[in-house]
Amino acid sequence: MRLNLQIALLSIALLANLPTARGDAPVSYRNDIVPVLTKAGCNLGACHGAQTGKGRLTLSLRGEDPAGDHAKLIEKFLQPGDPAGSLMVRKATLEIPHEGGERFSKKSESYRLLARWISEGALLNLTNDPTILRLETDPSHKVLFAPVTNLHIQVTAHFSDGSKRDVNRWAIFEPSTLDVKVEKAGSVTSLRPGETTVTVRYLGKQSAVRLAFVPERPGFTWKDPPRHNFIDDALQEKWKVLRLLPSPLCDDSTFVRRAHLDLIGAIPKPEEARRFVADPTADKRTRLIANLLKRPEFADFWALKWSDLLRVEEIVLDRKGAEVFHTWIRESIAKNKPLDQFAQDLLTAMGSTYKVAPANYYRALRTPERRAEAVAQVFLGTRLACAKCHNHPFERWTMDDYYEFAAVFDGIDYDIKSNKRYDKNDKNNFIGEQIVKLTDKRKFKHPRSKEIPELRLLGQDDKLKVSPDRLKQLGEWLTSKEDPLFAKVQINRIWYHLMGRGLVDPVDDFRETNPAVNPPLLDALTRDLMEHGFDLRHAIRTICASRAYQLDSQPNEFNANDEINFARVIPRRLGAEQMLDSVYLALGSLPSFEGYKEPRRAISLPGIRPLYRTRKPTGGNKFLHLFGKPPRLTDSDTERMNETSLAQVFELTSGATVNGLLTKSDNSLTRLIKANKSSSSLVIDAYWNFLSREPTRLELEAALAHFKNSADRRHALEDLAWALLNAKEFVLRR
């Protein structure tokens, strides 16, 4: 007892001579102690900030509920006026055992602030305690050139009383890559050249610092390559600063193949590729894009992309609902319906899921929370899910924002006309017509207040009334040109599908702490999309016309290590449907699928039914599943898996689908053999069939040698076709 008293007196004596957080003002729990706990990790997700807490203490994540945390600390862990006797202090300094280890020493500033606050009575509120308004970082963005590899980020917090404070000591610094390390007080050191974003957090506010560390690149000279449109203007301005030289333009055979894969989802027919390469006119690339945009396969392929996002799958929608919904999506694209009108029609649709096709969107989203999360992610690029249980740790959205936005979708209900589900244990399984309707009934409650929340659009001040036209107001607000976020998300998604990576990446994760790799370009593309009436085809034409889209994939010494600034094309594996359709197209047939009588292209399938639900999955069904066709159970572009696997290699080299096609009696190889052409002509035709180009001299000689040594020309041609199907040039979009 005497020892504890001596420690307490000594602590108070030491604290009497120390500066406080703000001059001589008392220590503020909200502005001084919460940052101490956050910096020490006490209220983070790995410790007491977890949903169930740790040990006997549960705190709100990152201190988002200061009053609630204070009450819990006072109840068991603090002795106001007695720092040395407070359990929180003793555990944090390891005076008594603490599973989380030492959080700070008794010589630290954290200890001194905490001890002083307890000595002053451990008050929750101070008179005229200011609140934080914003966080300022200096610099907000910077490019540093070798040999410079360090910089210091200065963090200043601005408060409601007009004061501002240097908060480097208490701010949290989180880099987006492993290319840099950040010391606790904001000193950044580059470990290797590259770009990174450092997120700075303090008292619920956050700011992003964009940094680029550029290597010396000896011998670099900017060569000012031609520019086709404003896209090249914006990209080249950044390339020049980062000392990046773009690759040259790709050749015509690469371009014709790339354009067909990107716009209609499969390789060109050999005669199409030959005709394009032989065309001597200067505008043939522009004309090719224009012609592809008019083809019915364009609507098929881009309807596939939207079907992935809008959850067109057969467990919840059933076969007929999926077909009706997919048909509406495809017809909207075929008619070039503006993207803003497409979104409004989708969000306001009510009625029979068999007669009002877009009503199927809400059929797949059965709760207000799921509807809010899906709409925010698909149309606003906002991932709201984290705010369901606590204030969003990476965004500005609070739990109140989440539940007030979700309340907009409260009252959507269903008349289930019939349900002949095949799985009685799966409550998500529906087979039968449903009527989607909007009512005034409200059952949805905020989990903290237990009250029915008011209706409010995301990030808006004004509340919505519970009226029949609230979904119409939602659609009009969401697509308004006054707030370009919807347009930004849609053009970023189009860019992603054509260029392989979003300007904001992941493509549906728009937030201050995940900035665009080229903000001026994203802004310019957004303006262009809005000025042209949200025209999908116009946006695609514009991007495909740029020099950047037409670059080669072969790197040079000045862009080989950069994969995010589009100075070269990054090869990527074909998507599941692209791969399957291209294999069948090259071999002269169409795939078959369970439940469909006639063969058809994979990109035209209306919905998706999991393999384990089907009785007789075809080789086509299995192939699509193996190569990453998504089950459509989320609302994200990232659900589709384009990674390679050993199983995919086995499928292409020895799988039943490919081998069966190669040996099929009426395939394209048979037709080539029957034409009684020379071995040289057979080889050339095969290369055009599979790789959309002529063979090189060495390739032709090697193939002819194989034909010469083979007793059967048909088998030799099958061997060549097998080799070409498994070539990187076939399986990659370059």
Structure explained in plain terms:
With 734 residues, the chain is an alpha+beta fold. Helices cover 41% and strands 10% of the residues. The strands form 6 sheets. It has a 4-stranded mixed β-sheet. Strands 1-4-5 form a 3-stranded antiparallel β-sheet, with no helix packed on it. Helix 6 packs antiparallel against helix 18, helix 17 crosses helix 19 and helix 25 crosses helix 26. The chain is globular and about 100 Å long. The N terminus is likely disordered.
Which features would summarize this protein structure in a list?
734 residues, alpha+beta, Immunoglobulin-like, four-stranded mixed β-sheet, three-stranded antiparallel β-sheet, 17 strands, 10% strand, globular, disordered N terminus
Oligomer: single chain
Helix percent reads 40-55%
Separation, N- and C-terminal Cα atoms: 76 Å
Runs in which pLDDT lies below 50 for 5 or more consecutive residues are: 1-22
Strand order of the largest sheet: 2-10-9-6
